[in-house]
């Protein structure tokens, strides 16, 4: 049964029953109702000078809050916090979400659609959406890029993080503390990853560069599993540039078809080569074709040591005295007191000359010199050739000479020469040849003879050979280097003869004999 009761303070409408509602009608049309649970339903507009709702309020339609003299607002509060949604006509952010306890701004929206998110004090926007420029700024209110992170000098970094359960990647600017990554520098730009994440750089949907978790870089390739002592830039399928630091030695390497996981190995089935810079020396090594991932056995093809000497695989500075073994090439660098020599040695049984000089595409009128000789920078002769012969040219220009005498007595001098037949001691066949004894010619034609009779000279020789330093694949020394023990001994300084120097004497003698014959015939 429903009842209406009135008292000095209240008017009570009661719909008795669990499913009974109180309804309000105008002109026979329901405008409001209160159900048995206490929910108020209103059809049409509600105008209220202050409205308090305790519990859940549902609104189907529009809610208009209007204050003609001030700034309308909605207050949301609990026993502990209070927030206000308000419209402030005098502020740049006309729509605001504020902390009602201290009036600190939290969110603001301008008439142009810019959105500001404020820091903890509520005075400065730190997260700003510029609606007209369509740019988002973090740390500033005038973003210069689509996403702009900025803050004045501070110990904290400015970074964007991308992460998953495996690890995180960061892009940003290091702060003054410089501690995002090990080795970070203050105020530097960084791109990096934590944990077991590598980095990939791609263009046209293809990865062009990889940085693996060990810090090795691959351009056009994923780096091989290099030993941790190596830091490597791997180029394409098989090239690399890198440095090894370990075992008390540093090695800088440049190689093809080689990597090291503790042992040098082939990347793919093919030949391999490497250049290693270590302890001031440059070592060029090669290897024949081998199977991918098989260990490499190197052959040292060329070495440039830290004194500037150049040695081929079997080359030796003392190769000029070599009597057996394998031939090679060596350049003994001029150190200001000794050296400056090129030594070529080979085994005569192999059928190769020590030097081959070939001048091709030659025709008359072109440079025909094979070799030029100079003394103190002045040319003193050369070797030249044609398509059919070779000439040995020595200086003879009249402008180089003085005291020219055409009246010398050649016949008397020629008769002092003692042509002989003999064999050389080193010739096991004792083959007789025609020639002269050097010191017997020196008094007649001294310019034809080099050296002095019975002269001796000091010669350096190797008492015990040098032992080369041997290292394992990672640069650890397994055999210490030992320098060669050198000694000095006295050996004969042999004389020599240039028999072409006798030709002028022979020609002049013939001329004198011809004059005598002519005189006798007359």
What does the secondary structure layout of this molecule look like, with pairings?
Layout: E1 3-6, E2 11-14, E3 22-26, E4 29-34, E5 40-42, E6 73-77, E7 82-87, E8 93-99, E9 104-110, E10 115-118, E11 125-130, E12 135-138, E13 147-149, E14 158-163, E15 168-173, E16 189-193, E17 199-203, E18 206-211, E19 217-219, E20 230-235, E21 239-246, E22 249-256, E23 259-260, E24 264-265, E25 270-278, E26 281-290, E27 299-304, E28 310-312, E29 328-332, E30 341-345, E31 369-375, E32 378-385, E33 390-394, H1 410-414, E34 420-422, E35 433-435, H2 438-442, E36 449-450, E37 456-464, E38 470-471, E39 477-479, E40 485-492, E41 496-497, H3 503-521
Parallel strand pairs: 12-13, 19-20
Antiparallel strand pairs: 1-2, 3-4, 4-5, 6-7, 7-8, 8-9, 9-10, 10-11, 11-12, 14-15, 15-16, 17-18, 18-19, 20-21, 21-22, 22-25, 23-24, 25-26, 26-27, 27-28, 28-29, 29-30, 31-32, 32-33, 34-35, 36-41, 37-40, 38-39
């Amino acid at each position: 049964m429903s009842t209406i009761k009135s008292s000095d303070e209240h008017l009570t409408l009661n719909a008795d029953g669990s499913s009974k509602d109180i309804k309000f009608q105008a002109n026979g049309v329901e405008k409001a109702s209160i159900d048995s649970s206490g929910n108020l339903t209103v059809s049409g507009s509600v105008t209220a000078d202050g409205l308090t709702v305790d519990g859940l309020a549902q609104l189907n339609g529009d809610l208009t809050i209007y204050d003609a003299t001030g700034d309308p607002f909605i207050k949301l509060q609990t026993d502990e916090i209070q927030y206000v949604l308000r419209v402030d006509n005098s502020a740049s952010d006309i729509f605001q979400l504020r902390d009602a306890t201290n009036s600190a701004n939290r969110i603001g929206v301008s008439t142009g659609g810019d959105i500001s998110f404020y820091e903890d004090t509520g005075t400065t926007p730190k997260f700003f959406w510029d609606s007209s420029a369509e740019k988002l700024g973090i740390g500033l209110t005038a973003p210069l890029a689509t996403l702009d992170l900025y803050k004045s000098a501070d110990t904290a970094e400015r970074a964007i993080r991308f992460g998953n359960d495996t690890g995180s990647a960061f892009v940003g600017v290091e702060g003054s503390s410089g501690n995002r990554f090990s080795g970070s520098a203050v105020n530097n730009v960084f791109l990096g990853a934590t944990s077991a994440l590598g980095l990939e750089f791609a263009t046209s949907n293809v990865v062009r560069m990889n940085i693996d978790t060990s810090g090795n870089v691959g351009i056009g390739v994923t780096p091989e599993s290099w030993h941790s002592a190596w830091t490597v830039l791997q180029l394409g399928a098989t090239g690399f540039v890198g440095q090894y630091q370990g075992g008390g030695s540093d090695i800088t390497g440049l190689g093809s078809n080689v990597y090291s996981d503790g042992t040098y190995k082939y990347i793919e089935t093919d030949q391999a080569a490497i250049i290693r810079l270590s302890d001031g020396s440059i070592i060029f090594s090669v290897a024949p074709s081998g199977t991918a991932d098989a260990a490499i056995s190197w052959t040292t093809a060329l070495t440039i040591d830290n004194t500037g000497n150049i040695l081929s695989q079997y080359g030796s500075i003392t190769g000029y005295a070599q009597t057996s073994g394998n031939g090679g090439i060596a350049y003994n660098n001029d150190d200001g007191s000794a050296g400056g020599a090129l030594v070529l040695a080979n085994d005569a049984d192999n059928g190769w000359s020590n030097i081959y000089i070939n001048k091709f595409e030659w025709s008359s009128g072109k440079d025909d010199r094979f070799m030029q000789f100079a003394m103190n920078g002045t040319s003193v002769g050369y070797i030249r050739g044609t398509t059919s012969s070779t000439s040995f040219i020595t200086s003879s220009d009249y402008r180089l000479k003085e005291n020219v005498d055409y009246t010398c007595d050649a016949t008397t001098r020629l008769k002092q020469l003692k042509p002989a037949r003999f064999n050389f001691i080193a010739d096991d066949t004792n083959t007789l040849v025609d020639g002269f004894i050097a010191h017997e010619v020196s008094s007649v034609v001294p310019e034809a003879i080099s050296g002095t009779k019975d002269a001796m000279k000091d010669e350096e020789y190797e008492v015990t050979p040098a032992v080369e330093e041997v290292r394992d694949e990672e640069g650890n020394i397994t055999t210490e280097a030992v320098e060669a023990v050198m000694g000095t001994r006295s050996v004969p300084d042999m004389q020599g003869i240039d028999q072409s120097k006798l030709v002028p004497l022979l020609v002049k003698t013939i001329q004198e004999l011809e004059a005598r014959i002519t005189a006798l015939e007359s």
